[in-house]
């Protein structure tokens, strides 16, 4: 204990040197700033035997200088505003981190504790923070480190350029807020932009840090949702050896994708472009993020041939009145802590500041040079999205302090000086007010933070930039459109295509696809082992179509439809049935009507000559009934012609079956009469009394009634109905009558065949009976024709396709009907009309008597 009280050295003191303070101003409340005035630190050789020298930085960043001056511009505006923070003067301390994590943390700790070496609070290493809040750094990787450090001290850190989506995690970064949109929106927007141009085959390069890894992870997820395939995804960092960059370039050269999604920072992209420039690698369509697409880095501009037509997203731009004049009014200073502009001044005007031990130079800087003659990214206010974010960050702190000040005065009624001390001692309260701040900028924009510390977004989020030459061959970052995240897909992008330039195709949008789009009539078939964007286009099969581009599956047409020649539309199949309009239908209908007419003519002749011997000798009653049934047979064939309907299908088969049974029954009756008549002429025979006219009528009715019963059962159980037959032909629908019950149809035909066969046998037995005009001969021949026709009908009916099946059936009906008509009645008509001398009883009985003699 005594050692502690008598110690000569202070317990706590700052170690090391921090000489990165670029701009500063005292004030009641200090706002810290960390910006990357230089692109990277100079690599130092660390021997670990002596203290390392102070790090040196290289590569001036004009845009970062603009950020710092925008911060100063906002603070000066606030200090001159009597309504905002009255009686409180804001000061600032702005440090350079050289885009290095170590230097950024050093700058943050300096803003926390100061840069003195005196004892801090004697016994305890505790001292109030110099800065109430800090703005910056500009990149995500550095911000993650600084935000992690400051979280333990409850110091608010407001980002203006760090877009990593990881920083939205309030569990890891509770004191971090930002005025720039998260990379989540940018990653999704990049995927949607690629899809909007119709590209689906890309390569991806990212920074190997939080910014690149988190941003690319979100992009890959969004790309998958949008149907975009990534051929390769590689990570690089500025500290990687040259071999890693050469390996990446080799991957780019050997890949088939020509679109490169570059989630890179400017300093890493510079290294990559330099290697590509040495190898003269061009022809890639670059898609850039806001970290480099709007950067007017002089080193990068020399690689424009490689980057021609680059497209990317930049934080939405707007106008900030008074900024341009302020940027041009600044001047260098030799006051320690405010020398940040001096090195830039030397670069702007190609001069040097006088040094005590240096030789006199003719190009000494005077500090009175005119900035208006300078044209670079510092003086350019055409694209100042990030710069305005710095401006908003300062005002967010100021309004939060104002709200906090009102609360302190209201509660304690303290004077302004005491309030200022109170403000500096309550960083956690400031954080609370920052989260709830809501203000309107002088340009009319309403600003506030969301629950995760990100800015509340609405309307336009990003501008779409395009690298192109103007009429004076000067590279321009043309704003060719805008992105609205919360609109529907068709209105999300507002793009002026006529103002765009693409890599390799000029103003024409190129097609960057792994496989060309599959046109209607084909479907996509994924190539084995490759991403889904790589596929073959397979023509749709017969009967299937695809009527959209890049169809995954072909759609089968409805049964009544078929695919057209291009397989992109379903068209109605040809309807086939035997109609009255076609030649075959007309011919068959004509023969049917002709047959009915001839039958009617024969009936007329028989009726006129009904009292002649030849008519009376052949059972005139059965003859007339037979002629009537033949007329029905001819006419029933008409029901087979025309489009099938329920009634026509039921009528055609039943009418055909009943008409033919009636016809065969009459012929069978006539045949039996011939046989019985011969038996009746024998001595002592009285057989005719058993088969007289009543018995003949009864037999015809009985035979016909059996067929009627079969048809009734058929119609009741399973009737013939219309059927669309689509199995026989691929492109034709056959309208036909389904038999319903095949057994019933077979029974109808079988019964007709049984009667015809029985009639043929009886007629064959009676063919040589003695008679000058033996009708059995004609019946035998007619039954022979009838049976021959229907025997050949069966195989022809089965093998005939479509409407020819119906034609075969009609032909069989007509052929058998004409056979019966011609064989049985034409010979008799011939004698009646042309040989009347033979139409006598004597002639009919003559041959019979000769045989008896």
Which terms would index this structure?
853 residues; alpha/beta; Rossmann fold; 4 domains; eight-stranded mixed β-sheet; six-stranded mixed β-sheet; 25 helices; 44% helix; rod-shaped; disordered C terminus
Largest sheet: 8 strands, mixed
Which ranges are low-confidence, i.e. pLDDT below 50, for 5 or more consecutive residues? 1-8, 116-124, 847-853
The chain-level mean pLDDT equals 82
What CATH architecture of the largest domain do you see? 3-Layer(aba) Sandwich
User: Helicity level, as a percent range?
Assistant: 40-55%
Q: Rough shape? A: rod-shaped
Give the number of helices: 25
Q: What is the fold-level CATH name, i.e. the topology of the largest domain?
A: Rossmann fold
Q: C-alpha Rg, in Å?
A: 54 Å
Detailed description of the structure:
- Helix 16 runs antiparallel to helix 18, helix 19 packs parallel to helix 21 and helix 21 runs antiparallel to helix 22.
- This protein has an 8-stranded mixed β-sheet with strand order 10-9-11-12-13-16-17-18, sandwiched between helices. The protein has a 6-stranded mixed β-sheet with strand order 1-5-2-6-7-8, with helices on both faces.
- The N terminus and C terminus are likely disordered.
- Helix content is 44%, strand content 15%.
- It contains 25 helices and 27 strands.
- The chain has 853 residues and is an alpha/beta fold.
- The protein folds into 4 domains: 308 residues, 3-Layer(aba) Sandwich (Rossmann fold), CATH 3.40.50; 175 residues, Response regulator (Rossmann fold, 3-Layer(aba) Sandwich); 50 residues, no CATH class; 270 residues, Up-down Bundle (Rhopdopsin 7-helix transmembrane proteins), CATH 1.20.1070.10.
- The radius of gyration is 54 Å and the shape is rod-shaped.
